[in-house]
């Protein structure tokens, strides 16, 4: 089975993809029922927008880390796999550490979200660093716009913290990304 066929087969069993193939009314109703819990403020979240957000993020499961593919590395990781691995590594932070483990987990999970729109831009693309950051910033604004002001702003601020390396947690997670 070719890589493209494998991605399509995976998409067909993905709950988000299945939800996106149902009628708009059924999809929104099903989502509204599922998020009606104390964990979510249903009033603050537009189910259609959240599904759009999840559809964008789901693309990361099928997007290669281009640096590895450019080097012809077989079975290289996908962007979502990279983010997941970084998130799992944050659990290894010791209790005696001054780092906020939860903040590190959050940073690891949001650091490459922009790539679901702009793709994995590598130095081989010859895009100046300031242009790359501008593209990613615009993408993050688009992505987070689907999550309402509270959650969207929180994720955008985490992304900006990571990019600026303005906290010990951001520096640590940036270093994890280099492993």
UniProtKB/TrEMBL annotation:
- State which gene encodes it: AUGUSTUS-3.0.2_08897
Q: Which UniProt keywords apply?
A: Hydrolase, Metal-binding
Molecular function via GO: 5'-deoxynucleotidase activity; metal ion binding
> One matching Pfam family, short form?
HD_3
Query: Which InterPro entries does the UniProt record give?
Result: HD_domain, YfbR/HDDC2
- Source domain of life is Eukaryota
The organism that produces this protein has a lineage beginning with: Eukaryota, Metazoa, Ecdysozoa, Arthropoda, Hexapoda
What's the name of the protein?
HD domain-containing protein 2-like Protein
- Coiled-coil region(s) at which residues? none
Tell me which residues make up the HD domain: 57-177
Transmembrane ranges?
none
């Amino acid at each position: 089975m070719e890589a493209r066929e494998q991605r399509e087969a995976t998409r067909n069993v993905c709950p988000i993809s299945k939800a996106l193939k149902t009628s708009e009314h059924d999809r929104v109703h099903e989502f509204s029922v599922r998020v009606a819990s104390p964990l979510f403020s249903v009033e603050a979240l537009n189910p259609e927008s959240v599904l759009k957000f999840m559809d964008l993020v789901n693309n990361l499961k099928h997007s290669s880390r281009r640096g590895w593919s450019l080097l012809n590395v077989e079975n290289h990781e996908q962007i979502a796999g990279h983010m997941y691995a970084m998130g799992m590594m944050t659990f290894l932070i010791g209790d005696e550490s001054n780092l906020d483990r939860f903040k590190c987990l959050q940073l690891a999970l949001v650091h490459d979200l922009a790539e679901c729109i702009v793709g994995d831009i590598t130095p081989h693309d010859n895009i100046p660093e300031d242009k790359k950051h501008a593209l990613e910033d615009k993408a993050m604004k688009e992505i987070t716009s689907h999550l309402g002001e509270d959650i969207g702003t929180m994720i955008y601020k985490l992304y900006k913290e990571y990019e600026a390396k303005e906290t010990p947690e951001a520096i640590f997670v940036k270093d994890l990304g280099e492993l």
